[in-house]
Amino acid sequence: MQQMGRVEGKVVLVTGAARGQGRRHAVKLAEEGADLILLDICADIEHNSYPLASKDDLEEACREVEKSGHRVISAEVDVRNRESLQAALAPAVAELGKLDVVVANAGICPLGQGQPIGAFANAFDVDFLGVVNTVHVALEYLTAGASVITVGSVAGLLAEKAGAGGGMGPNGAGGAGYNLAKQFVDRYTMALAAQLAPLSIRANVVHPTNVNTPMLHNEQMYKMFRPDLPNPTVDDALLTFPMLQGMPIPYVEPEDVSNAICYLASDESRYVTGVQLKVDGGASVKF
């Protein structure tokens, strides 16, 4: 039988929480005993070709958390705006009494050729500055035993390895911004871990491969994996998705990433800090 209550009594902040990975992380942590603060922009962002979560999605995420019997507070917040984050987090922490864990998960991946430079800026601002804003706003509430968890990307690390992290690359300006942001998230988290260790606060980064969420299942992503076809379908992309992983799988499920998040949020990892936890089906070792 699965052990329950692994984060019993903790209060956890999750950004990008309305759907996809963020919602699954929130529900998993609630099932394991945590109270949640859920933040999401609940609006589309310019240059991002697939629709982002809605207010209804955030409300549904809250209902899923509440099924576990735990408290949840939510707000519509753009992580690019530090003042808005501060305004949302302060009353939530006051109501729930503390903050133990930060999961900086919010992210976008605007792919496609011919994008304006704004696609680079928006991807970088959400995927890196959004992480920094979230963590730095939360720092004043964290005490010994707290855990900071950022979400990177194995694809971003592989792009850096291949020397494609700085240019426009085959995925356009937005793809370049995404890759650079995820590389910076990795370096930032390692530097942050060193600064927080004397305070007995941990910082770790989780690097997923393809994850079965709307970020993966959209037209531009299919075109990236099937550039040989003018209008590839999900079935077309499923033939090439496994090329990224070492294991013969097209992607991991959000639950696979949530399990890693829960471990890093729990006291099971109380002496684990400065770690790159790759949930990638062997992608990083393959390349």
TrEMBL record:
Keyword Oxidoreductase tagged:
yes
A GO term for molecular function: oxidoreductase activity, acting on NAD(P)H, oxygen as acceptor
User: Which keywords label this protein?
Assistant: NAD, Oxidoreductase
- A Pfam match is adh_short_C2
NAD as a keyword?
Answer: yes
| UniProt-listed NCBIfam families | SDR_subfam_1
Could you identify this protein by its name? 3-ketoacyl-ACP reductase
Origin species, per record, is: Mycolicibacterium confluentis
